[in-house]
Prior knowledge:
single chain, 323 residues, mainly beta, Tachylectin-2, Chain A, 40% strand, binds beta-L-arabinofuranose
Amino acid sequence: xxxxxxxVTHIFxxxxxxxxxxxxxxxxxSHDIPHDxxxxxxxxxxRMEDYHVLSLDNLDADCVDNGEALHMKNVPWVSKQMWAPxxxxxxxxxxxxxxxxxxDGIFRIGVAVSDKPEGPFAPEDNYIEGSYSxxxxxxxxxxxxxxxxxxxxxxxxxxxxxxxxxxxxxxxPAGKDKALGPMFAExxxxxxxxxxxxxxxxxxxxxxxxxxxxxEDRRYFEGPWMxxxxxxxxxxxxxxxxxxxxxxxxxxxxxxxxYRGRIMEPVIGWTTHHSIVEYQxxxxxxxxxxxxxxxxxxxxxxxYTELKYNEDGTIQTIKPYEx
Length: 323
Ligand code: FUB
């Protein structure tokens, strides 16, 4: 596969979560459905109904679409919009985490299990108890403990839970208000339930102050990812309205995190969503843009490019259309 070209062109794909399992690269994307409807701030244009797992035997190989891994018709609690998924391996099983709207139209996070990384995945009957919002990402740490990160503003409904209950009329943080960080919880050993009460992660600026809602170049919007580099925890995410991929670091998986910089400048299309994975001693960023559809926001395509660190552990900013 060539860097910075669509991994596949026969379907539209987005939100890639990449992992190395059994020496191969597996990519868990959203599967965008083409339609002629309009975009809105709730993301109603993202009408996904199923997941296909992509795989690469190596970075020179063609990308394989392993077919349908899970369809919403087989998930009892889902009404629509199966958005950005992730996958984790533990205890000999693969766990697919995915957000979708429940029968009341509220985004929740579900889990489905398989013996194989490409699926098919068997869903649990209900969503993870206590879960809400979108964009799950799971880190299985070196000591075997598993952590889930999730949440997204606007259409992802994260602001609507500020009182602890779902309320569509809850005001969004604005101006000098503290920005909402992504959610964090440790998972139980069954990988299907929260071990700890979910909490917002703190993201601090260079003075140790929490990022503010008005700081749209740096504050969290959606699409969290967690990876470790030289023992440090790197939380990366999209800034949404300003379309950057940025990162913050911490000594601990649950923070507090300190903002460190920008990973990638904006791509073609409104959303930007990524994952970071190490493969054969190098690091790669998987991301999407709308190049394949000439800029239609809900017809995206997944790509990858190399990601480089500086000696001090900072990440070199990628300009997606410049070498
Ligand atoms: O794919 C639907 C939504 O768009 C995702 O959940 C967000 O991260 C954004 O990429």
